[in-house]
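Predict structure. Chain length: 256.
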Amino acid sequence: MEPALKVLTLPKSRSTKLTLSSVTLYTNHSCPWAHRAHITLRALNLRYDEVIIDLTRPRDPWYLEINPRGLVPSIKISNAILQDEIITESAIASTFLADAYPSSTFWPASQSSPTSALERARITFFVDTFINKVNGLSLPLLKAEGEEQERLGRDLVTAIEKEIEPLLEGAGPFFGGSSSLTFAEALTAPFVVRYRTYVQEGLLPKYILKGLDALPNYSKWSKAIHERDEVTYIYDGPGIAANTLKRIQSLKAATQ
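Prediction complete.
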């Protein structure tokens, strides 16, 4: 049973603006979901402490007390009112941080302008489309071989062309015409950079990149993502590819 949500009443004389005095990120640099939190923290210029969780073995009891699911990322936050509050799941933790420190260019507060709620809705739709229409194809693609991998690879390119390419119309080069990274990239860039890495490191066939690079909107957007420090500062492409290959080999062995 999940713990009951604590209802906190702020003194009337105190500002209700949330300022975090400390943020601890429980993470693993090879995990794309944890990568979302890293990008968000960097984009918001927030200082944080980092605890690396080994995902190759059963979780230690102390971490299961923090996150009973044993997943990363988790964040622990404190300030004058909150003390060691835990937030789990990548999209939820990242959204919490972005809501705590809204930015007109990254993730606007819902009532900061007449169009901010609409901007948030469009970002949310874009991320939902990417995760549910595109990214679900990646694990079966990595596990597949031969003709099946070729078919799934073409399905990935087709899905991006159909679902994502139109939504990037007018990207400047980032989502919604922005010249700087937005929350849309924070939640999707970890997967975008991995597609290219997996091809470059031989986990996926080269024609996938050829197909993606032929999409004018997506290719411009992807290139801009790869050039951003917020995305690359903890990203070790070859190391991630090596870890992914081990995981795929383990999954295949388990089904034999």
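Summary: Confidence is low (pLDDT under 50) at residues 1-16.
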